[in-house]
Design goal:
This protein is an all-alpha fold. Helix 2 packs antiparallel against helix 3, helix 3 runs antiparallel to helix 4 and helix 4 runs antiparallel to helix 6. The longest helix has 25 residues. The protein is globular. The two termini are 29 Å apart.
């Protein structure tokens, strides 16, 4: 087996690693907004009111991020989070005077949007509860 073929064989595992690490990072954004953990929201370190759009977004990120870390219900949750990130970019970042994501602080929102959109189609990967449940059905 060539190095290229061997590297390609790792794709399902690397997809799982991308999902786990990206979801863990997103989950921290959510817990910052709703639990002030590992830190509170800048500038004052408080949490968002859950009845606001930022509070609801934080709840989606914290709970949805947890589900994506473990790889449960990956496709529908990733689709919802892709939409949330699109809204976050267009509503909060794009409207700033600077048109480029690196200038308006929206680079992470765009990356998350497309990462979750990818997982909504590709699924969780090998290391996930979704994969475990699917393999159990086949057995």
């Amino acid at each position: 087996m060539s190095i290229a073929e061997r590297w390609k064989s790792y794709a399902p595992h690397l997809r799982s690693l991308l999902r786990i690490f990206a979801a863990f990072m997103l989950m921290q954004n959510g817990t910052m907004k709703v639990l002030a953990w590992p830190m509170g929201m800048p500038p004052d370190g408080h949490t968002a009111n859950l009845l606001t759009q930022i509070g609801f977004g934080g709840l989606l990120e914290a709970v949805g991020g947890f589900f994506l870390v473990i790889g449960l219900c990956t496709r529908p949750i990733a689709f919802i989070l892709a939409g949330e990130m699109a809204v976050a970019y267009w509503q909060f970042h794009f409207k700033l005077a600077q048109p480029w994501p690196i200038e308006n602080g929206g680079a992470a929102a765009i990356l998350y949007c497309f990462i979750w959109f990818y997982f909504s189609a590709a699924g969780a990967g090998e290391w996930s509860i979704d994969s475990w449940l699917e393999n159990r059905k086949k057995a």
